[in-house]
Amino acid sequence: MLEVAIVAVLITMVLALARGVIGPTGYDRMLAANAFGTKTVLLIALGGHALGWHSYLDVALLYGVLAFVGVVALARAIEGDKA
Asked: Which strand (E) or helix (H) includes residue 53?
């Protein structure tokens, strides 16, 4: 069951990446970057659980914080383009 969850997360990551490339507006790209970051955190946590390395949860949390900061920076850059 864990392998099915990992494959499902990988499929949604590919879809988010495609949306980021195809997205017609900056907001679509920002939403895709946020979704990709969230799915990456989930993938790291699932991979750590599958391998029995529970210290990967710390890595997942750190990546989540970095992804959040990156999306906030991207949002501010997009907002600056409008002004």
From this structure: none
Q: What tokens were used for 44?
A: 């790291």
Residue 83: strand, helix, or coil: coil
- pLDDT tens track for 18-58: 999 998 888 888 899 899 999 999 999 999 999 998 888 89
Give just the sign of the alpha carbon dihedral 68, 72, 74, 78: positive
Query: What percentage of the chain exceeds 70 in pLDDT?
Result: 96
- The secondary element (H helix, E strand) that includes residue 9 is helix 2-22
The first and second tokens of residue 76, run together, are 């501010």
| Residue whose entry in the numeric block shows the structure tokens 């949390």 | 61
